[in-house]
């Protein structure tokens, strides 16, 4: 029973980190987008995580909250940092003062986040592989 919860917990982490990687890729792709359908420059997005609640028999019996089993995505939020101002009077979106409002996306920050999400994804994949090896060993012992 615990073995399957291990798979489930690690899989939830992999799913969440995959979405995080998708959002980071979208931020990088729009790092120079000065005009969006909402108006103004692109605004950086980030994924908001929360612990998943336990939904097993022990959780129902307990009166105190039990630690979560895995992670869930609560939503995708916009970063409220102001846009960067770049002086480029020849840009089509330049204002009267010659400044262009650029997205609040920092490529270095996005790359660091991408490495972090990638490592977290790999760690969860390693947990699944280790649990699989343990399950196979347990089956061999039972022979």
Strand order of the largest sheet: 1-2
Q: Could you give the distance between the termini? A: 19 Å
Shape: elongated
Low-confidence stretches: none
List keywords for this structure.
single chain, 143 residues, alpha+beta, two-stranded antiparallel sheet, 3 helices, 4 strands, 48% helix, 16% strand
Could you explain the architecture of this structure?
- The structure is a single chain.
- The protein is an alpha+beta fold and 143 residues long.
- The chain has one domain (2-31, 45-78, 105-141).
- Helices cover 48% and strands 16% of the residues.
- The chain has helices at 2-29, 57-61, 107-141; strands at residues 45-51, 71-78, 84-87, 99-102.
- Helix 1 (2-29) packs antiparallel against helix 3 (107-141).
- The longest helix is centred in the last third of the chain and has 35 residues, at 107-141.
């Amino acid at each position: 029973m615990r073995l399957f919860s291990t798979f489930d917990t690690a899989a939830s982490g992999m799913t969440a980190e995959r979405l995080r990687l998708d959002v980071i890729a979208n931020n990088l792709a729009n790092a120079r987008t000065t005009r969006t359908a909402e108006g103004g420059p692109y605004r950086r997005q980030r994924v908001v995580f929360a612990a998943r609640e336990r939904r097993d028999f022990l959780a129902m019996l307990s009166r105190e909250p039990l630690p979560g089993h895995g992670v869930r995505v609560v939503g995708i939020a916009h970063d409220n940092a102001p846009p960067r101002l770049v002086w480029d009077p020849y840009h089509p979106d330049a204002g009267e003062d010659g400044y262009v409002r650029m997205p609040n996306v920092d490529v270095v920050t996005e790359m660091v986040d991408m490495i972090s999400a990638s490592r977290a994804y790999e760690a969860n994949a390693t947990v699944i592989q280790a649990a699989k090896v343990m399950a196979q060993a347990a089956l061999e012992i039972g022979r």
